[in-house]
Write a structure and sequence with these properties.
Layout: H1 2-26, H2 33-50, E1 53-58, E2 67-71, H3 78-85, E3 89-93, H4 102-108, E4 112-114, H5 119-134, E5 138-141, H6 161-167, E6 171-180, H7 198-207, E7 211-217, H8 228-244
Parallel strand pairs: 1-7, 2-5, 2-6, 3-4, 3-5
Antiparallel strand pairs: 6-7
Length: 245
């Protein structure tokens, strides 16, 4: 029965993805930013419902920029989850651009791509992010740089924090947790790490019961004279605190 239900979720999710691509192609260019944000949020929430993932938001989602949101990273679902809570413009590794269907969606939603391990591209991205922050955008990054298993945070990379310093913009820490809604314990189905494949992780999520994702927002912080490495360490400590609370 789980496999039959998962197949039905695949059918519904595929239709929802096609609808999302159609909306991006036909409507995004003529909508206001607030209308686009609403569409992204509602589309993302519906996709989570289709996949059987319950969204719980704790704290106060941001309503306006400039703001750089930093969060821990565990799953291919993370961008979808954060857009369901409050849409932002994400900075993501360039690999995500080539994900089947999902890549086209997150590209259409305005994701900025960075070449992993390319110092020159990181500098380019810092300048571009600073410009977007000065235009009062809400940007979001996963400073671990890759997905972890959720048991402990990987070290936060500091390079992209320079954009917030350059634009004198606040940073907002966010903690993501996947739990079993029936027991309150961690749920590993959506975790995308190690030897797991994207298709395998998606299938495990579609087959799972009781998947709940908790998005916990902290308080925004200004640079206050910190360099990017100090600020990255402070934000890692804050996200860890949010995960434990």
């Amino acid at each position: 029965m789980k496999h039959l239900r998962a197949l039905w979720r695949v059918v519904r999710a595929t239709g929802h993805v096609v609808r999302g691509l159609w909306i991006i192609r036909t409507e995004f260019g003529r909508l206001t930013p607030s209308q686009t944000e609403l569409l992204v949020r509602e589309w993302s929430r519906q996709m989570l419902r289709i996949m059987g993932v319950e969204l719980v938001v704790r704290g106060d989602p941001p309503t306006s920029g400039p703001l750089l949101v930093v969060a821990n990273h565990m799953s291919w679902l993370d961008i979808l989850v954060m857009n369901a809570a409050q849409p932002a413009r994400f900075v993501s590794k360039s690999d995500a651009k080539h994900w089947p269907l999902l890549g086209a969606l997150i590209t259409g939603a305005g994701t900025l791509y960075i070449e992993r391990g390319n110092r020159r591209d990181a500098m380019r991205m810092v300048h571009h992010m600073a410009e977007r922050l000065r235009e009062r955008d809400i940007l979001a990054i996963f400073p671990e740089g890759t997905t972890g298993d959720g048991r402990a945070l990987l070290p936060f990379h500091a390079n992209l924090f320079q954009a917030a310093i350059s634009a004198n913009a606040p940073i907002l820490p966010v903690a993501l947790r996947f739990i079993d809604s029936r027991t309150g314990e961690r749920h590993d189905a959506p975790v995308f790490v190690g030897d797991a494949t994207l298709v395998g992780s998606i299938w495990a999520t579609l087959c799972a019961d009781g998947v709940q994702v908790v998005v916990r927002y902290g308080e925004p912080q200004m640079p206050q004279g910190r360099d990017r490495r100090t600020w990255a360490r402070d934000m890692q400590d804050e996200v860890a605190r949010l995960l434990a609370s």
